[in-house]
Amino acid sequence: MATGLVQRAITRFPVTFSTARAILNRSQASGAQTPLAKSEFGSKPVSDLKTFHIYRWNSNNPDKPKLHDYKINLKECGPMVLDTLIMIENEIDPTLTFCYSCHKGICYSCAMNIDGWNELASLTKISSVPSCMISPLQHMFVINYLVVDMTKSY
């Protein structure tokens, strides 16, 4: 029964890069402050900070999907997108959900849509990503935040 509910909800909220961009533009236009964003880094230079826009939607919650902004000091995390996601989960927002296993790009469990491209978070360098918009894979059913149903892939 839960699977049918998830599939109906996913068909209602398909994840595409243009959908994520529209959500971001809408939240920036309204001037909404995200309570989960890391606020201050003291007197660090602005060039060390990078904003990550991460897709947030839970299949158990009927609200519309949102993009949360996280400001990250790049000197405090590793060079890959997966390192940043792990840091956000450990230090800023423990409710963030995503999959990873090997941390080497072998298992493909960290596959997600990064700036409109389907890539592995463990192999994608932060420096190669201009706007850092992270969402689940577009062609999969979203279970929770960045976790997708991979049963048909395996």
From TrEMBL:
Gene3D superfamilies: 3.10.20.30. It comes from the Eukaryota. Residues 51-152 form the Succinate dehydogenase/fumarate reductase N-terminal domain. InterPro entries: 2Fe-2S_ferredoxin-like_sf (IPR036010), Beta-grasp_dom_sf (IPR012675), SDH/FRD_Iron-Sulfur (IPR050573), Succ_DH/fum_Rdtase_N (IPR025192). Pfam families: Fer2_3 (PF13085). It comes from Forsythia ovata. This is Succinate dehydrogenase [ubiquinone] iron-sulfur subunit 1.
